[in-house]
Each structure stands twice: as C-alpha cells, then as structure tokens.
C-alpha cells in the first residue's frame, strides 16, 4: 500500500472516533458511572440527613462529583468518587523501618534494691537536715498578709532554753588546764559520847564545833591524767577537851602516757585518825586505869609502776611503800603507853592482769606481796611484830547499761609473823565498790572492804576487819537532797577470843541555796558490841552546818 492510501485510512479512522465521542451513548456511559457512584457512596448519619422530601440532600456533599477532587484520565469520575484511594477498615499499618531499638545498655534493676545511703551524724548533709528539722518544728508559719494590709514582720520563735541537769552543783575554778573544786564547812552540834567509852567509864557528853575543808583536783588534758582529793577537819569538844581530835584523808593518782599502749602510773595517799581510848589494844590491865587522850596515827603511801597493753590484754607492775606512825598514849594514872615503837614501814609489789572481754566487762586477777618492818623489834608487850604477807584476788570491772558500774573482787590473804607465839593472820578477802543509778534523782552506793590491820593486843597476831557500807541519796527537789547511810563491820583478833561487831546508821539533809552555799543537818548513831570487857559503846551525834564551795 502506498503512503497516500495510508494517510487517507488514518484520517478516516480519526473521523469515526471523533463522531463516537460526540454521540448520546457517551452521555449514557456517564449516567451509568454516576449511578454506580451513588451505590458505592456510604450512608450519612441521621443527624446529617436532610428534610423528608428525600433526594440527595442528606448525602455527604464531599462525596458528590461536584465537590470531588478532579482526576485526569478515564477513571477520574469513578475511582475518586468510590473512595478507592482511602485504606480499608481494620487494615494494619506498615511497620516503621528501621525498627525502633531499646536504649543500650539496659538499666540495672536488682530483685532486692539496696536501701538508700544514710549520711553519718557529723557530716554536712546530716547537720543540714537536722537544722531543717529543727526549723520546721518551731511552729506553724503564719500566712502572708494581704497586699493591701500593712503588718509588722512576724517574730521568729526562739528555741526553748536547755534544762541543766545539775543547776546547783559547783562549777570549780579553772587554772590553766586544771580544775579545782575547793570547799569549806563549819558545823556545830552535840555528842553524847565523844571518846566512845563503855558505860562503866561514865562517858561525859559535850557540845562541839567542827571545821572542815578540802579540795578536788582534775586535769583537762588531751593526754595524760591527774586526779586527786584532799580533805581535813578538826572537832573541838568544849566540855571534854581530851576528846578533841583531827582527821584527814587524801589521795592523788597520775598517769603519763609514754605511747598509745604504755603508761607510767603514780599513786599517793595519806590518812590521819585517832585511836579511841577504850580500844582493846590500849588496855592497861587494870579496870580503873585507862587512856585519857586519843593517840594519833598517821599513814602515808606511794605506788609507782608501768602498764602495758597488748590488744585487749593489759599488764601492770607496781612497787608499793607505806609508812605508819603512832603517838604515845597517856593513862589516867599519869603513865605513858609507848606506841611509837609500833610504827613500821611496809615494802611490797603488785602484779595485775586484766582483759577487756567487752566494753562493759573487764575481768582481772591481782597479786600482792609485802613485808612489814617495825621501828623496834618488839612492842610494849614483848612480841615480835615484823611479818610478811600476800593477797591473791580475782574480780571484774562492770558497767551494765549505765545503771550499775563499779568493781567486785574476791580472794584470799595471809600474814606470817616473826614471833612463833603469834598465829598466822589469814582469811577470805572480799572487796566491792558499786554504784546503782535507777533514776537521775536517786543513787545507791555499795562498798565492801577487807583489811589486815596491826594490833598491840597480847597474843593477837592482828585484826581481820570486814566492813560493808550502803548509801542512798535522793533529790527531793532540785536543791534539796536527803542521804541515808548504814554500815556494818566486824573485827576478828585472831589468836584471841576477842570479837567485835559494830554498826552506824545516819541521815543527812542538804538544802542548796545557790551553787556556792548550802545548809546541812545530820544525825548519826554508832554502836559497838565487843567480847572484850568494857570495850563496847553507843554514841549519838547531831550536827547543823553551813558549807561554801566553788
């Protein structure tokens, strides 16, 4: 076929196609498409429906062909109207790519989480929290006033002043790093048996005046230690001058820390007392002759040693020295009783081992050996009194929850004398010093002691003395105190039949006017029951006084 014929055929085909597009059949095709669009369009909700006249007033206007987005191509009027471009109901959304990943690494989450950390008491955080708590407990903060009302600023609440535990106790005098607590006391009263004589000697009562003074010393050092106490007094009896007498006691303890675990220990002590005229050791042998004065006996002592700690174990070694002087007695017939010859020196050594089992329990064992040498080989009865002895004991220092504290020990002691006529002085040794504080107002003190004392009684090696003392102190008010005292003691003159039993019962009332001034009143009843003839006695002492202290 030639090219001319091909062009004619293509032109004819174009005319036919143009004529078909302009015929009513195309209109029918468009009407058919609209009918299908109405069939596929979803129903509108009742609230959006039109009036009851029917028609297409209740249909969604967006779905109509007039409001639909125009599309190009033959499916523009059917596909968009039918909603083919929206997803089907219930269709899954595509997963994001790349998929979301969890944070890495995963945080640790133990099954049992640890408790929160608590700051220690002296840290900055704990102190700040304590200040915050104290600030919040002072009281409710008043609400801020209205902006239209002029008010004065709120006054902050002042903290309550702290209540002092002992407002009437002396404060002491500080000199450098030492604290001194001196006192002076003057008393007057009545004593119905000043010389503690048996009824057979017709004791003469007397009024009395007593003066007393003393001082306590305590160091305030970071290392080392020094502590001591000294007390002395004199009692003057106006109606019985021979009964007037002095008395004094004192002790001083020092510790020098060489290292953390080693220290030097020094101890000094003294005592001054008088012997009662009716004592068996002063008996003249005649019932009508007795000692009229009160012979003075003075004792001083010193100890020195070292203490070394090995962990909880502590070992102490000390050397001891004691010196005792006696004053001569004067009999009623004018003769003199030679007591100065019985003065003696005592040399000894002490070994002690202790172990700190707990902070409240510290058991220990202790051993002492000593030798006594008198100024004269024999006493006025012709007996050789030089002797050697030992004491072994074991015990513990206790501190039970701040209620009970002190020391308890028990053991055995023996003294052997140079004179074969004197039997050994021996027996159990029990010592205790306990303080029981059931409340801040009440204190109970219990003391027990055992001593092997010298004597000049013929055929008696010595006197084994045991004593126990109980004291109850109670504050009726902050400045009013009452103290009850009771004691019991026994004297066993081994080698003879002489046995003595005695007791003291007393009460003391103290009213503290200020820290430095207090008023005191006391009563004491004393008695002694002795198997020795004309040696027992009873006495009652009444005293009222004024005390000054710093």
Apparent shape = elongated
CATH architecture descriptor of the domain at 175-549: Beta Barrel
> Count of helices?
3
Structural class: mainly beta
- The end-to-end span amounts to 151 Å
CATH T-level topology of the domain at 175-549: Maltoporin, Chain A
Q: Kindly state the mean pLDDT as a whole number?
A: 83
| H-E string | HHHEEEEEEEEEEEEEEEEEEEEE
Biggest sheet descriptor = 18 strands, antiparallel, barrel
Question: In the CATH hierarchy, what is the class of the domain at 175-549?
Answer: Mainly Beta
- What fraction of the residues are assigned to beta strands by DSSP? over 45%
Radius of gyration: 55 Å
By DSSP, the count of extended strands is 21
Give the low-pLDDT segments: 24-83
Helix content: under 10%
Please give a quick description of this structure.
With 550 residues, the chain is mainly beta. It is built from three helices and 21 strands. It has a domain of 375 residues: Maltoporin, Chain A (Beta Barrel).
Polypeptide structure, described:
The strands form 2 sheets. The protein has an 18-stranded antiparallel β-barrel. Strands 9-10 form a two-stranded antiparallel ribbon. With 550 residues, the chain is mainly beta. The protein is elongated, with a radius of gyration of 55 Å. The chain is built from 3 helices and 21 strands. The protein has a domain of 375 residues: Maltoporin, Chain A (Beta Barrel).
């Amino acid at each position: 076929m030639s090219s001319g014929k091909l062009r004619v055929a293509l032109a004819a085909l174009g005319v036919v196609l143009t004529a078909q597009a302009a015929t009513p059949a195309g209109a029918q095709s468009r009407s058919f498409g609209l009918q299908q669009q109405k069939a596929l369009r979803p129903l509108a909700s009742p609230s959006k429906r039109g009036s009851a006249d029917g028609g297409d007033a209740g249909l969604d206007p967006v779905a109509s062909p007039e409001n639909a987005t125009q599309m190009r191509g033959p499916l523009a009027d059917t596909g968009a109207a039918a909603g083919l471009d929206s997803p089907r109901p219930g269709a899954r959304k595509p997963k994001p790519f790349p998929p979301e990943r969890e944070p890495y690494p995963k945080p640790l989450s133990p099954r049992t989480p640890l408790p929160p950390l608590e700051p220690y008491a002296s840290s900055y955080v704990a102190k700040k929290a304590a200040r915050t708590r104290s600030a919040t407990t002072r009281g409710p903060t008043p609400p801020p006033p209205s902006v239209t009302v002029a008010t004065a600023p709120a006054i902050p609440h002042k903290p309550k002043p702290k209540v002092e535990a002992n407002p009437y106790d002396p404060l002491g005098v500080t000199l450098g790093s030492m604290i001194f607590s001196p006192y002076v006391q003057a008393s007057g009263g009545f004593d119905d048996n000043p010389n503690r004589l048996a009824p057979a000697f017709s004791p003469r009562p007397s009024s009395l005046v007593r003066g007393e003074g003393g001082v306590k010393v305590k160091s305030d050092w970071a290392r080392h230690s020094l502590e001591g106490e000294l007390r002395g007094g004199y009692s003057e009896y106006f109606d019985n001058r021979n009964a007037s007498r002095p008395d004094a006691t004192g002790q001083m303890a020092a510790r020098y820390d060489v290292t953390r675990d080693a220290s030097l220990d020094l101890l000094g002590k003294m005592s001054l007392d008088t012997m009662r005229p009716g004592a068996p050791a002063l008996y003249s042998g005649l019932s009508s002759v007795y000692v009229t004065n009160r012979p003075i006996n003075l004792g001083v002592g010193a100890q020195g040693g070292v203490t070394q700690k090995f962990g909880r174990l502590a070992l102490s070694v000390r050397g001891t020295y004691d010196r005792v002087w006696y004053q001569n007695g004067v009999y009623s017939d004018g003769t003199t009783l030679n007591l100065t010859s019985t003065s003696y020196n005592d040399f000894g050594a002490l070994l002690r081992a202790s172990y700190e089992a707990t902070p409240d329990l510290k058991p220990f064992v202790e051993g002492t050996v000593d030798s006594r040498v008198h100024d004269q080989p024999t006493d006025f009865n012709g007996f050789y009194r030089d002797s050697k002895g030992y004491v072994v004991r074991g015990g513990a220092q206790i501190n039970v929850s701040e209620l009970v504290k002190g020391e308890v020990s028990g053991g055995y002691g023996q003294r052997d004398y140079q004179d074969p006529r004197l039997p050994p002085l021996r027996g159990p040794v029990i010592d205790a010093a306990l303080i029981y504080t059931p409340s801040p107002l009440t204190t109970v003190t219990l003391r027990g002691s055992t001593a092997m004392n010298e004597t000049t009684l013929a055929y008696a090696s010595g006197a084994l003395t045991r004593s126990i003392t109980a004291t109850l102190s109670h504050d009726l008010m902050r400045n009013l105190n009452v103290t009850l005292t009771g004691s019991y003691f026994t004297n066993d003159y081994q080698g003879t039949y002489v046995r003595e039993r005695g007791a003291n019962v007393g009460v003391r009332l103290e009213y503290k006017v200020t820290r430095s001034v207090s008023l005191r009143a006391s009563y004491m009843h004393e008695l002694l029951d002795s198997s020795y003839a004309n040696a027992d006695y009873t006495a009652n002492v009444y005293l009222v006084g004024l005390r000054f202290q710093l």
